User: What shape does this take?
Amino acid sequence: MISIDPPVEGLELREGEPLAPRTTLRVGGKARLFAEVKKRSALGPFLRFAAEKGLPLLALGKGSNVLIPDEGWPGAVFVLAGEFREWRCAGDLVQAGAGVSLMSLAVGAAAQGLSGLEDLSGIPSTFGGAIRINAGAYGTELFDLLVAVEVVSPDGSEARLDPSAVRHGYRYTELMEKSDIVTGGTLRLWPRPPEEIAGRLAMVRSRRQAALPSEPNAGSIFKNPPGLIAGKLLDECGLKGKRCGGAEVSAKHANVIVNTGGATARDVRELMAAMQGAVHERFGVTLVPEIELPGSRP
Ligand SMILES: Cc1cc2nc3c(=O)[nH]c(=O)nc-3n(C[C@H](O)[C@H](O)[C@H](O)COP(=O)(O)OP(=O)(O)OC[C@H]3O[C@@H](n4cnc5c(N)ncnc54)[C@H](O)[C@@H]3O)c2cc1C
Assistant: This one.
């Protein structure tokens, strides 16, 4: 039994937590240790505890871009909850914790008459997960809006970064190459008439509903190669409907894998390999995964 003594206020620990329900693809095994960090003051003690026990760490947001291995995670999986789900605005600046949902942030900002997040509103992400990968949609990327990024390193030291000093690009930031934890950030938004913000939010919602399947999925599985569209290449290979076990290339979107029920991580990986193989054979293009595969060798 793994326990922390004395207990830390704002830190809940559980062993053997199933992770599949915590991902949008509904795939993967259990976490050896699962932690809900609800107070900012609990993060440092939790990180020290995990280091002392030799437990490899895995941050989990909404689990919308992650393929958890069937064997689960041999260390400590943690979510940033409680205080990390708070946000506030001052003028045109919005400061939010990493655990805030991007959708609720967009809707909350809209209620304050602040525009900027509408295009990103349909991404089923936490703010922290979206910062880490520089999530984007319809021509807007999160780093277009950020004026500060807050991180904590595994040794517990905190830093406030200037986003222009963080290397970033399409579905990439250098934070993805580090083990720092994103704890929050600040956005600069701008005033816009509420009916215009509401109109853009509604347009984004209906475009996404039309484009994406309703079965459990992780959004785009592969990044768009420079100048190309991964979904188009996959579609031209006739891959819609291709299956490996319970994993299937969506009939609606060829760059999305759906879990038809009972899919394993192994099924998903096999299907990904078949998709990459088909595109490489036909177009000579190597598709790079957008979904993250923790615990697997690059
Ligand atoms: C239906 C659907 C549509 C999507 N559409 C889009 C889209 O339009 N644009 C787009 O960019 N993406 C899209 N995605 C992908 C996904 O939503 C984004 O990549 C999102 O930013 C992932 O955030 P998350 O909080 O779910 O992170 P998770 O999936 O939980 O984690 C992803 C990775 O980030 C790490 N991580 C999570 N939180 C933190 C943190 N606080 N600090 C450090 N590391 C962390 C995890 O360890 C993991 O490696 C879509 C996904 C789905 C399911």
In short: The helical segments are 40-53, 102-111, 127-133, 194-211, 230-236, 265-283.
